[in-house]
Amino acid sequence: MKLTLVQGDITEQPVDAIVNAANSSLLGGGGVDGAIHRKGGPEILAECRALRASRYGGGLPVGEAVATTAGLLPARWVIHTVGPVFSRSEDRSHLLASCYRESLKVADALGAATVAFPAVSTGVYRWPMDDAARISVTTVLRSESNVREARFVLFDFAAYEIFDRVLREFG
Ligand code: ADP
């Protein structure tokens, strides 16, 4: 698997699947989630509602992932995953790593060859960017997957620089 970095907006990525930093409700939120539903149109939310009414009545658990189609977005699928809220008193790294592993498993099941990831948990969920970059990059590098390209899409240059440094260190 090739790991690439771009600075930009994940909703504009022409890849097979983009990953959404969703919340457990699957019913929309701010940040990446808000942008995906805003630009992707109502079809994505309708599929999320159907998931809540069936398989995920209690919400999507933290660290798990599930796919919907991508509505009006250039990608074919959205893979929704729920990152952990950062905690100083409890190590939740395994849950953040799980988001990436489980998203890649869903991508494999879909047959997606190119997948774009945001920096899950680094927004509203407050995970420090350098630590999140280390966990995300090492988890993806160690994952067994048929995905050809895993692309990290960083919204601002500061985040891009941090991921770039981590990728040079571990990649
Ligand atoms: P979480 O709740 O998991 O922290 P957020 O969506 O609040 O998720 O933030 C995750 C990261 O995504 C943050 O670093 C934020 O700056 C970034 N981000 C926000 N909007 C976009 C976007 N359209 N494309 C790519 N990254 C984005």
TrEMBL record:
Spans traversing the lipid bilayer: none
Classification via PROSITE patterns: MACRO
Protein name according to UniProt: O-acetyl-ADP-ribose deacetylase
Matching SMART domains: A1pp
UniProt-listed InterPro entries: Macro_dom (IPR002589), Macro_dom-like (IPR043472)
Keyword Metal-binding: no
Leader sequence segment: none
Keyword Hydrolase (UniProt): yes
Matches recorded under CDD domains: Macro_OAADPr_deacetylase (cd02908)
Matches recorded under SUPFAM superfamilies: Macro domain-like (SSF52949)
EC number(s) recorded for this UniProt protein: 3.1.1.106
Enzyme class, spelled out: hydrolase
Keywords of this entry: Hydrolase
Ranges for domain Macro: 1-171
